[in-house]
Amino acid sequence: MSALFSPLALRGLSLKNRIVISPMCQYSADNGRATDWHMIHLGHLALSGAGMLILEATAVEPDGRITPADLGLWDDATEQALVPVLAAIRRYSDIPVVMQLAHAGRKASSRVPWEGGAQIAPDQPGGWRTHAPSAVAFHDGDAAPIALDDAGLARIKAAFVMAAERAARLGLDGIEVHAAHGYLLHEFLSPLSNRRTDAYGGSLKNRLRFPLEVFEAVRAAFPADKPVGVRVSASDWVEGGWDIEQTVVLARELKARGVDWIDASSGGLSAAQKIPLTPGYQVPFAEAIKETGVTTFAVGLITEPRQAEDIVASGQADCVALARAILYDPRWPWHAAAELGGHADAPPQYWRCQPRGLKDLFANAPKA
Questions:
Q1: Contact 43/88 with Cβ under 8 angstroms?
Q2: Is the pLDDT of residue 21 over 90?
Q3: DSSP 253-319
């Protein structure tokens, strides 16, 4: 039996296989509201046969968007815009749908990637003043963020809680808290971006404090039978920055607070990062985190079914999470099942496409 196509339980949630669709920003929202693009894009991925679909980074407040076109969940309008999208998915697919809750911190107020991704200055159309642990800009020449005071910390924590409550009301199957890629919670973790001298900066214990408080608040606000995970950057890839040893400490603290998975990515905090891009280059991070006993997702240049199978079968990670690979091939789970002797679900409208000789590929199709 294929390890990649074995089931996995996360609290009351059952995954039919170990293939997760990573959250991928689409920069196609209207003032935080989901649009027709999300209906098409997410509906398409919901039919992929993957075990779980994670929605893109969803800002918990307007100032927490990476770009003005980011998806959000901070008011009734942003909540209601997701209702028809999720209803369409539910109508045609039983794939578990999870939402990644995020705040971009000092990397907010940026242009969309296909316009270069540079910061939009606060005094320019579409721009705003960003917030961060410390008044340290991401790029030289960027407007420095405002260092969060106690009231700001309380506001953002409350925003995460309110978004989690909205996610529960929408019927989402889980939440992933975004603490990676140089965004706000990662900024608190890394000594490169956190220069605070209060209880939220300095020592590792202090730098962990705000991300752990946010996780605890989200966990408490979301139904107890539904899982909450965390995405981390396991390394800044910069000397003196956040690293895997500190990440393992974070993982242990999250485990003690009931985390259901850790999604192990890396980088994104510093323009000085030096990342050795090779197939599966981040898998060792997932493997190190898994030693704490936490369920882990491996990500990063995982493109081939045999590669994914080996990662799960060897115990390096519990799941693989695909992003660019599944954008390129939205039927990747079908093709992986065909190669590995596994089974994937497909909507009945597609059952007749099973290749000759693979008439039991679709697990939910009637047998000939």
A1: yes
A2: yes
A3: HHHHTT---EEEE---S-TT------TTTTHHHHHHHHTTT--EEE-SS---HHHHHHHHHTTS-SE
pLDDT at 368: 63
Write the CB contacts of 74 (distance below 8 Å, at least 6 apart in sequence): 32, 59, 60, 61, 62, 159, 162, 163
How many C-beta atoms surround the C-beta of residue 190 within 10 A?
A: 22
27, 92, 183, 328: the catalytic one is: 183
Task: Report whether pLDDT(357) > 90.
Answer: no
Band of residue 183 on the pLDDT scale cut at 50, 70, 90: very high
The span from the CA of 241 to the CA of 164, in Å, is: 30
Average pLDDT over residues 71-80: 98
328 is a catalytic site residue: no
Check: CB of residue 76 under 8 Å from CB of residue 32.
Answer: no
Q: At 204, phi and psi to the nearest 5?
A: -60, -45
- DSSP at 80: H
Per-residue pLDDT band for 229 (boundaries 50, 70, 90) equals very high
